[in-house]
Design a protein that fits this description.
Blueprint (H helix, E strand, L loop, with lengths): L3 H71 L4 H21 L2 E4 L12 E8 L5 E6 L1 E4 L2 E4 L1 E7 L6
Parallel strand pairs: 2-6
Antiparallel strand pairs: 1-4, 3-6, 4-5
């Protein structure tokens, strides 16, 4: 028959062994989790850079078009060609932004003024609450206004003294 002290010592050794096993399992699980976090962070950066790469490739085409337009302006008698090149580049640039999900605001003059989408930078004689002039376009991306358009808004003079 074992003495009670021997049984206690055996139990202590057994518990120490179990503790060592659990500690090793915990450390492996912690390392796995930290590696997973690192991989996920790297994946997010990769995806963000991939998106940037695609949009930059598209915008680079517009930049090249603008430089070609500038170069054509250096030639004699090329003002019309230059203006046409800049206009085409601006339209291409707008098209790329719209392809990427940007909704340009406002659509044009005579749109209703909406303070959620537009920032009035001036008021002039014209139909009430209508956009008379677009100073700078704004945009909506993924349902969120990311830039308010700067506009001049009409106010009729009737009824005012």
């Amino acid at each position: 028959m074992k003495k009670q002290g021997d049984q206690i010592n055996e139990r202590i050794v057994q518990l120490e062994r179990e503790l060592t096993e659990w500690k090793a399992k915990y450390l492996r699980a912690l390392a796995d989790y930290q590696n997973l976090e690192k991989r996920e962070a790297e994946k997010k950066i990769y995806i963000a850079n991939l998106g940037k790469e695609e949009i930059i490739k598209k915008l680079l085409k517009v930049l090249n078009s603008l430089f070609r337009a500038v170069e054509s302006a250096d030639n004699a008698n090329a003002a019309a060609s230059w203006l046409q090149g800049v206009k085409l580049s601006a339209l291409e640039f707008k098209r790329i932004l719209e392809q990427e999900g940007l909704e340009i605001t406002p659509k044009g003059p005579n749109d209703d003024f909406d303070p959620l989408l537009h920032h009035a930078v001036g008021i002039t004689d014209g139909p009430d609450n209508k956009i008379i002039e677009v100073v700078e376009m704004g945009g909506i991306l993924n349902g969120k206004t990311i830039e308010h358009a700067k506009v001049i808004v009409g106010r009729s003079q009737t009824g005012k003294e």
